[in-house]
Specification:
The chain contains 9 helices and 13 strands. It is of the alpha/beta class. The strands form 3 sheets. It has a 5-stranded mixed β-sheet with strand order 2-1-3-10-4, sandwiched between helices. The chain has a 5-stranded mixed β-sheet with strand order 7-6-8-5-9, with helices on both faces. The chain has a 3-stranded antiparallel β-sheet with strand order 11-12-13. It is globular and about 60 Å long.
């Protein structure tokens, strides 16, 4: 019998659910999998401290590079543009709803239906910036922590509403808690949002071959294109830049947007090209150049 793949995961409820989904796919393809919980910097930071680049990923990458685990599962939007040396994203096995979602304490609200001056919690400069471009009267407060802790703080009255990733709420069985799934044209998602990313060592041929059995090529092309937009703008996972790519009928369609964190400037565009590597690079570079011309992004 083949040795079990050691799958590294964070210990949060959402991370475990996502990792279990990948494990089930691999098991269905005949590969035994063992889940290994790894504590990350993001799990240890105080609830009111802002996350930095890669805080949910770095510890998993270290464990992977050291050989303590064989693969690591991440939310694709959390993966830094520069991976740990010797590692690759070997598979994007699935993608949920890429949109952002509005969740209010009162329930049943749209973004337009929030009261004037309502307090909205989010840990994302991108979400905060786009919110303020649409509703400059809203008050933004930083809201960190996992989905469950943010919802508890909302119910306790720390904010009137939250903006969260729809896919995370859906995977937690909390889709009914969503008031509104926000139009990507108005609230452009983070590059890779909703997608899962499975990282492995570049020299581990056996594991790479196993992960190829759960790879979804169209999801990979979409996520890679979105991340190229972010990279070409000089951004990071914390930049106020959004992108959403889709593949259909041999065509690659890209929505890209950027805003100032205070909401005073924003620009959005749609592009279309061939659904291949060259088309991906061309669309991403064209989009990034346009965004940089229109919006002064933070360094």
């Amino acid at each position: 019998m083949n040795a079990s793949l050691r799958l590294g995961t964070r210990g949060s409820r959402l991370a475990l659910l996502q990792s279990t989904r990948v494990a089930e796919r691999l098991r269905a393809a005949g590969h035994p999998v063992e889940l290994v919980t790894v504590v990350t910097e993001g799990d240890l930071r105080p609830v009111d401290s802002a996350p930095g680049e890669g805080v949910f990923v770095t510890a998993l990458e270290r464990a992977l590079a050291a050989g303590d685990i064989d693969i690591a599962v991440h939310s694709a939007k959390d993966v830094p543009l520069q991976l740990h040396p010797g590692l690759v994203v070997a598979a994007h096995p699935e993608r949920g709803d890429p949109r952002d979602a509005l969740v209010s304490r009162a329930g049943g609200r749209s973004l337009a239906g929030l009261a004037r001056g309502a307090v909205v919690g989010t840990d994302s400069p991108r979400r905060a910036g786009f919110l303020l471009t649409l509703r400059p009267d809203l008050r933004h407060v930083p809201f960190h922590g996992n989905v469950d802790s943010r919802l508890r703080r909302l119910e306790a009255g720390a904010a009137d509403a939250l903006v969260l990733a729809a896919a995370g709420l859906d995977r937690l069985g909390l889709g009914a808690r969503i008031d509104t799934r926000l139009d990507p044209w108005l609230m452009a998602p983070a590059p890779g949002q909703g997608a899962l990313a499975v990282e492995a060592r570049a020299d581990d041929g056996r594991t790479l071959a196993l992960l190829a059995t759960v790879e979804a090529a169209e999801i990979r092309l979409a996520v890679v294109t979105e991340r190229r937009v972010l990279e070409a703008t000089g951004g990071t996972c914390r930049s106020p830049v959004g992108a959403l790519a889709t593949v259909a009928g041999g065509r690659l369609r890209l929505l890209a947007a950027a805003c100032s964190p205070d909401g005073t400037a924003a620009h959005r565009l749609r592009l279309e090209g061939e659904a291949d590597e060259a088309g991906s690079r061309r669309l991403a570079e064209t989009a990034a150049a346009e965004l940089l011309r229109r919006v002064a992004l933070p360094a």
